[in-house]
Amino acid sequence: MGARSFFDRAAHWLLTGAPWWLLAFVLLYTAGGAFLGWRAAYEVLVGLTAPGQTQHSAFAYVLSLSGWLLVPAIIGGAAGYFLGRQIDARRPLSEEQVRERVANPEPPATPEPDRDRGLRIRSLAELEAEGGEGRRFVEKYVAGPHTRNREVAEEHWSATVQFVADNWARLEGLTPVEAAVEAERLARAAAFNAAQMDRCFVCDQNHRA
C-alpha cells in the first residue's frame, strides 16, 4: 500500500510539478544561449566548460548548477517511476497458484531435429538446465567418470547418443524428434550402466576394443 501510494505521489508530481521545473530549465537554457552562445551554454550545462571561463561567469554558475541538479533529478525520477510501475505490476502468485505450478510443472523441451544429421543432441548444459535430476545425472554419470573433464565428457556424451541412434533398430521409423528423445533416453541408461564401473559408455567400448 505504501509503495502504491508512493507511485501515485510520483505520478502526481510528474504531471504537476515536473513540467514547471522543465519549463524553468528551458527558459534558463534559452537565456544561457542568448548570453553565452548556444555551444557555450551547452558545454557549461553538461560540465565540459567551467563557468569561470565564460564572459558571464555569474550566470554561467547558475546554469551549471541547474545542469548538475535538475537534469539528473528529472531523468532519474521519471526512470524510477516507470521502473517502479513495472515492478509493481508483477504481483506475487497466490498460494493456490504456487501449488498448481508445483503439481503441474511444464514438460521439458523436446529436442528439435538437427538439419544436417537429422538428430538433435542436447548438450550437457541443456541437460543441467532441467534442474536437480539433470544436474545429478551429468555430475555423477557423465562428468564423474572423466574426473570432471568437461570437454571430454561433452564429447563422449554426444558420441553415446549418436552411437545409440545409429545402432538401435527400435529407432527406425521414428521421426527425427522422436528418435532424438528415444536416443537420449537410451543413452542415459547406457551412461548409468557404464558409470557403475567408473567409466562412461564410450570409455567402456574403447576398453573392450
TrEMBL record:
Segments for region (Disordered): 95-117
Transmembrane helix is among the record's keywords: yes
UniProt-listed Pfam families: DUF6313
Record keywords, A-Z: Membrane, Transmembrane, Transmembrane helix
Ranges annotated as spanning the membrane: 20-38, 58-83
Source taxon at top rank: Bacteria
Protein name: Uncharacterized protein
Native species: Streptomyces kanamyceticus
